[in-house]
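Q: I have 123 residues here and want to know how they pack in 3D. Can you give me a structure?
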Amino acid sequence: MITTFLFRLSIFFGFILVLVILIFGYLFFEPFLTETEVTITVVNTERWGNERGKYFVFSENEVFLNVNDYYQNKHNSDEIYPQFIKGYTYKVNVIGIYMPFLPRFRNIINIIETTPDEFSQTK
């Protein structure tokens, strides 16, 4: 009776340990597994409340985060946020997986290239 209880308890803690290792392993390896380069056209930008270093960047098809993140080794969100201008097209590096059914957004790591739209150029 006691051995059955101890066996079940050890299986439970083993499952919890494997789950924790998988979650923290994903957080550690996420920058290496999911970093991609995408082209976006900015529709709008917003600050996340009154917090510094947390911003939303809205594109035509997706919402991105611009957030400082320890696991992604990103510390420049306050520097690149003012560079996002409505109507401009950007080539950016992003990390993460976009899940439309969950509030999980990809994080913009840096801006590679900027292209203004045809209406914002001075003639």
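Q: Anything worth noting?
A: The first helix runs from residue 2 to 34. The chain has a mean pLDDT of 86.
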